[in-house]
Amino acid sequence: MLKKIVWLVFACVLFFSFRSDNPAMQPLKVSDNHRYFTADGKPFFWLGDTGWLLFSKLKREEAEQYLDTRSKQGFNVIQVMVVHSIGEANVYGDSALSGKNIAMPKVTPGNTFGKGNEYDYWDHIDWIVSKAAEKGIYIAMVPVWGSVVKGNHIGAAKAKIYAEFLAKRYRDRPNIIWMNGGDIPGTDSLKTWNAIGSTLNELDKEHLITFHPRGRTQSSTWFHDQLWLSFNCFQSGHRTYAQDTSKKDLNYGEDNWKYVQVDYAKTPIKPTLDAEPSYERIPHGLHNVNLPRWTAADVRRYGYWSVFAGACGYTYGNNDVMQMHKPGEKKTAYGSKGYWFNSINDAGAQQMVYLKKLMLSRPYFERIPDQSLIVGSQGQKYDRLIATRGKNYAFVYTYTGREININTDKLTGTKIKASWYNPRNGQITGIGTVAKAKTLKFKPPGQKANGNDWVLIIDAI
């Protein structure tokens, strides 16, 4: 009986599915060097936002406001949970599942807008996916959050049926990315995660697939060699150096560039990125709301550190926005005090576009991490310098505004043009043109301090 119901659902989905209204969008692909992404053959820098509860908590007019704002701010990927809880319902009161059974999505046949079923859970998701495509945004869908799989003992068989439903419903949409997992170790329900990943890969050959792990872990630990894993993700998490005491984790502290180094050295080569660093406005370590909160300077640091270390992009997050905190809610997570529609314009969110613009300002696919550019101490913790370069350019990031000593021998030409790039506003200040040398010293503007971050730009002449 269950099998008949499932196939009836699939038939309805296939018959009534519709493509995006933006024919210009193409599914993302991995670049030829397997380090980055391309969209229609052009460089694509992943600038993501964790809009985790977008599908369930926002009405259509709110969803459009959110997507429009993020698009104008330069974001091009939104990470969203499809099923966050086993009893998931959207803002209109419609349930995602029949009988809290992951193998039985509650689908209203068709998309008969204006006939009373346009706020069906899955039709609402369809609408948001289409609206995102109109605005040039990709949706990184988390099929089912890790806690749901763990707490409700969803096995591989049901997970496979559910993944078949998702693949057939969304494989014709150009702006889908599959983000398996959801804040959980891969070893927890390993068969279930592999069933979801393998099924999506088998039925949907067009879209990339990754895995979102728990904090202080990375997908490559469990899934790097799986054929379904197109690229790696890691969650550097929300803890400080002092809070990083778990024996189960890698204990890299806040040094998210270390996860990139691990993934960068693996074969086969696959792109990697920080899919969940510390969020702007969230307490250090999440759970004690009386502790200090992460700021715009912190999210900038995580972005430049990881990308310069070789990541293919970066995902930003905001405590109020990720949970779509609204007025009138009695309960919020992690001490959220602001509302999503205000916090969406926080400084960190608006500054992320400058990272994207910088990375796309020079030949993109030739870029590699290269710490050998740095002469002397590379620095520890917040004093760490991170360097990346192409054939004719180099970028070096300092979070504290410390002196930077550079060996320019690896760049072409006989001279270099140096400039400062301000991550807070994207402004460029010229330093001058000088002859190449094995050691050139550069002192950033301002006094040395956490958050006085700068990028040294060097162009070969």
From TrEMBL:
GO MF: hydrolase activity
Q: Identify one Pfam family in the record.
A: Apiosidase
Give every Apiosidase-like catalytic domain span. Answer: 31-366
Record keywords, A-Z: Hydrolase, Signal
Please indicate which superkingdom the organism of origin belongs to: Bacteria
InterPro entries associated with the record:
Apiosidase-like_cat_dom, Collagen-bd_put, GH
Q: Does the keyword Ion transport apply?
A: no
Please give the SUPFAM superfamilies that the UniProt record associates with this protein. Answer: (Trans)glycosidases
Q: Which residues form a coiled coil?
A: none
- Residues in Putative collagen-binding domain copies: 368-459
Where does the signal sequence lie? Answer: 1-19
Entry-linked PANTHER family: ENDOGLUCANASE, LMO1036 PROTEIN
Output this protein's name.
Glycoside hydrolase family 140 protein
Q: What is the lineage of its organism?
A: Bacteria, Pseudomonadati, Bacteroidota, Sphingobacteriia, Sphingobacteriales
